[in-house]
Amino acid sequence: MRVRGYAPATPCWTVLTSADAGVSANFYGGLFGWTTAAADDGTTTFLLRDLAVAGLTAAPGRPSAWLSYVSTEDISATAGLVTDAGGSVLVPPFAAGTRGHSAFFADASGAVFGAWQRGTFAGTQVVNESDTICWSEVVTPDIPAAVGFYGKVFGWTERAGSAGAHQEYHEWVATNRVVGGMSPMGELYPPGTPAHWRTIFLVDDCAATAARAVELGGRLMAGPVDAGIGLGAFLMDPTGAAFLAFELLPELRDHF
Questions:
Q1: Residue-wise pLDDT tens digits, 194-219
Q2: How does DSSP assign 57-77, residue by residue?
Q3: CA distances (Å), 142 to each of 154, 182, 186, 204, in order?
């Protein structure tokens, strides 16, 4: 689906911070057919059919990770709300060329996310299609703390999610729109796993995608597992960035 803009308080952009950008570009090119192009702020953009699907930033010597960004009309005000809600400003608002303004935060439990105030660039241009990002969710050991934090910062409310028949799950709602999800960090997570935001990619065949990821040098951490609404595989790319590949049930895919 082609996207030209995002309402405030909506996940709008996702960037891979990579310890080896070249390895990452090759991996996701082989897995999803993405190509790359330089952006005017010195970063790289992943493209699918010449549409921006995600960002890529080189960070040698740092752990690789996917980072979700939430749209805002006033990034300085958002930074103030993060602090007031018990979170942390990791990187204060800064200009990303002419594309917009960005900042990095941690929520009250330590999950890291970004905020994006658009300039010439609104965010991801294609979503909810095969080999694109379809969902972002926070994984946290403290659901009440997350509900309080994101409610204060973005005005989100929480409701039981559609995967609830199989496991506890929550959805974020902004002005009657479901904009993301939240999952409790249960026993399946290794001790010491920090709260984090997870990036999910829609795929046609979860098992085949997992096998291909391994062929390309990635690692299957768990799955495919039944989530009630489809199958998910927890994967790690060759540089150590974790993500989830998800195959939605056909009857739901038609209405996604």
A1: 899 999 999 999 999 999 999 999 99
A2: EE-TTS--EEEEEEE-S-HHH
A3: 18, 10, 10, 33
